[in-house]
Design brief:
The protein is built from three helices and 17 strands. The chain is α+β, with helices and mostly antiparallel strands and 246 residues long. Helix 1 crosses helix 2 (214-221) and helix 1 runs antiparallel to helix 3 (228-245). The two termini are 13 Å apart. The model is unreliable at 1-16 and 227-235 (pLDDT under 50).
Amino acid sequence: MKKNFFILLVLISSIAFADALTGLIAHYTMNGTASDFSGNSQTGTIYGASYTTDRFGNASSALYFDGNDYFATPLYRQNYSYFSVSLWFRYTGSTSDSYRALVGSNTNGFGASSQSFFIGKDSGNSNIGVQDQYNYYANTMAVGTNAWNGGWHHIAYTFSNGTAKIYLDGVAYNSTTFSKDGGQIFLGLEPEGSGYYFLGAMDEVRFYNRALSSSDVVEVYNMVPEPSSLFLAFFGILCAWILRKK
């Protein structure tokens, strides 16, 4: 009976882990490399950013942006009608700062004056600003948050054929509608004009070609960082297999 109960727990854990991997198109662990760990070979390029400690105190396990650098992914926002991004961040600026992009893009290319895709700090306050449509910016999706207080926080954005939602630390805030827009996706930069750059650290960035559900977001929020999560999933499956053999 105990053996069967353990197998059930392992299988449930493995299924939950698999859900977090479904639709994953890029995963940047920021552990000393710009490589993509999703298996899809979407390797990024770092422009000036340096490595720093992550939320667990591990050295060279997160990427620090000093307000003038960025991380370029090979992904393009307009390619996905169903889309999610999830990441951890720690802001080191002030709430009075102007716009600070966690994730950004511009349909008309680097330096163009048009606005298209932005997730980050709203200008002059503690709101989270979101834009996923040409010249339509929503600054009231997450009002008066603690996102920019210098601590580590998890943010997730989901988009399902027009409906957009924002989550902070696993909790859903408001939703809105966008038509989706944007070109190449950057971390730490929205390349409008001279650019809106991030100031702080980022870690465990994931992109999906589906809209994560609220339970998916909570699952990713609670995930153990790579490679530990992969090891635990493999270990659980291995234990289940061994017990079945007995």
